[in-house]
Amino acid sequence: MRHFLDFEKPIAELEAKIDELRQMSEPGGLNIAEEVGRLSAKVERELRATYARLTPWQKTQVARHPDRPKAKDYVAGLITEFTPLAGDRAFADDAAIVGGIGRFRGRAVAVLGTEKGTDTESRVAHNFGMSRPEGYRKARRLMELAGRFNLPILSFVDTSGAFPGIDAEARGQAEAIARSIDACLAAPVPLVATIVGEGGSGGAIALAAGDAVLMLEHSIYSVISPEGCAAILWKDQAQAALAAEALKLTAEDLRRLRLIDRIIAEPLGGAHRSPEAAVTAVGEAIALALAPLGELDGTALRTRRREKFLAIGNAASA
User: Fold this and answer.
1) Are residue 43 and residue 175 in the same domain, yes or no?
2) What pTM value is reported for the model?
3) Of 178, 200, 247, 268, which one's alpha carbon is 20 to 30 angstroms from that of 218?
4) CA pseudo-torsion sign 236, 237, 242, 247
């Protein structure tokens, strides 16, 4: 069953009519192919018009769509011979961050991703993509492993942020995130990060401080969620739409501010309407980003990466 967002109501009504007509056109029913074709064309026009003018808050809703491809979908679609690796070798394994080694188009790589899950059971198992310290320590361990064996790192980010629980804070959440960011910046191998859904706060940056930061067209990337921002500034989460506008969290805003390197176009109507096409598009973008990075040695990569992030916010770089 397809999930429709609030602003997609006209599209939902049209598709409901199409489904109803198709049921009528079964053997013995009426031949209404022409009407179905007309309505299908109208759906496409409505999708193009709607998705061409999405507000930042609407993009936030699309980024959180339950049918949007998750990190595991990108791993399954792009990585062959994938072998998952678990644990931080200190406390536990954190299912909110998945990782391992495999091959991307024949080339051995290390893979990391924040995984939200796809149904109630898997979302609870993956803690809705919100990692505890052991998740970030696992990520750091795998990045260091990648550096040791000269494996490019691919990360897929989709998290509302790090887990804010007392137990996470007690085990050093901030320190774990900081060390994971440091591992990104220190990696002597190419690191290509892709924001595939939500990129929330330090929990996202911990896996996204890469040589190339890619972002799907309708994803978001921000220091705080719109609801969290609204609760702090206006003491009212109902102001989330206003906060989303102010946060400049869309791919277009972030590319203009030079906080990301490339926007990946999504299928018409968002990645959730055609997950396989979205996975393919991400794979093409990663391949393009990796190609020039393979020509640089570890010292050049680290220097280039350091300069890139130091330049962020510098008026001279604008």
Assistant:
1) no
2) 0.91
3) 178
4) positive
